Amino acid sequence: MTTDQLHLGVPGGPLRRASAATARAPRTASRREAVASWLASRWHLVASVALVGVLLDLLLGGALTTVVDPRVHAAMASLPHTGPDLVAAHVLDHTGQRWLVTPLVVAAALWACRRRRSWSSLWMVVATIFVMNVVIAVAKFSLARGLAISGDPSLFTAGGQAFPSGHGANAASAAALLVVLVARARQRQVRRSTALVVVLVPSTVMTAVSLYLGFHWFSDLLAGALLGVLVVRAGVAVEARALRHRALRRRIGLPPLSAVTGPFDVREPCEAAATGVGGLSARRISVDRNPVAR
To answer: Is 124 domain-assigned?
Structure first.
């Protein structure tokens, strides 16, 4: 091959290979963006599959609960548990307790209610916390998994209430709810990367602290975190569906299903700005809210 052929990029030359790599770069970036977009919109499906996988592994005695859990517990037990590290771990462990995270989330919900002039955020938070704690209680008492401090990861043991971790669920759900409520109160969207970091940081800290103190197995904490974010996702979806149904009833002139009133206007900003069936405007919607005026 001559020098001219080398620089002109004939077949086999470096210029041709560079051009091919440059052509592949946009396709690779496009595939990555497509995968990231799919994960951002379908993350709840991935989390649901992961939660079901952890549960099946526990029931069938898989590698996660019979191999990974004891090894992680033994590694954490070999660390020194004295001095400031132990004190800091006990302090951080309180961040996953219900008495601390619930008032914080309720306060954020009231802030969002006042800014949006609607009680829907508060009802969503109360229902989400209630459902999550019911699911955790049923799972704990029905599976009765042995506590990590006992060294027995088997199911149906006396006094076993390890799976799933309530602390892990509280930390993850509280972080997810705060992301939703702060975004509502500020009336602006939160970047997905920011929301992911806000949820992952307290969940990771709670997982590390509980493993260090020997309160839970790793699979307990993983299942608790997944359950917490999934219950929040379900609560937000149910709330959105209820608001759409309420807006539709107002547009077609039906009376509301509930006559409960409060100091806040129950109409959502999105409802007032939405266009009704058949091109009804927001002005028509506000008039149709009073059946007597018709």
So the answer is: yes
